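Q: I have 239 residues here and want to know how they pack in 3D. Can you give me a structure?
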Amino acid sequence: MELLAQVLAWFGDPAHWQGTDGIPTRVLEHVEASGLSVLVAATLALPLGLAVGHTGRGAFLVGSIANLGRALPSFALLLMLIPIAVNLRLDFSTWPILGAMVLLAIPPMLTNAYAGIRAVDRDLVEAARGMGLSGLQVLLRLELPLATPVIVTGARLAAVQVVATYTLGAVAGGGGLGRYIYDGFATQDTARMVAGATLVALLAIATDVAFGGVARLTAPRGATARRSLAPPAGEPGAA
């Protein structure tokens, strides 16, 4: 109960809600860095996952990347990337943690993009090809709409993992909510540590809920496949 009172008092201190070390600033830093990491990872992972899922070639590569991503701990990646950033004269408080988070986010998005495309009914795919749709049209108008909920789930997993793990950036002098945990540990300020961990947990939950809403909105309806197969006006086969 005493610790709870200390944590509540910490949150109630106006000094913790303003300035460069204030809660709004740290939350914004955390969200911006996490969002950038997920965005970069999506740029790299989704095209590859869609291509492999559509063609069926390279599945071994997808599995290897996914397994490697799960095997390498984020903290070890961070420690490996710090000296590389120093040698390249990059900001070691920013680039190593960004690189580690990108590598953390790639496997779930890559595997879900691949799995989502491969899960589309092959009879529908063959029917689309029989209607004269090209491979790219089949991917964009049939497979991608039907696979979107699975792809969003991969992004959801990646985003929650990155938000929860980005706290490691404080070890390299980065910002975000990890500063409260790291600084609290260094100064033996337990209330600060618990408050930081609580904020990270709440932000991870909010991220999960937000992506869950997107997943529900993108869930295919009964007529999705028929709309996907129907050629737009002006194309061969249009009414």
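Q: Anything worth noting?
A: The chain is about 75% helix and 0% strand. Residues 223-227, 232-239 have pLDDT under 50 and may be disordered.
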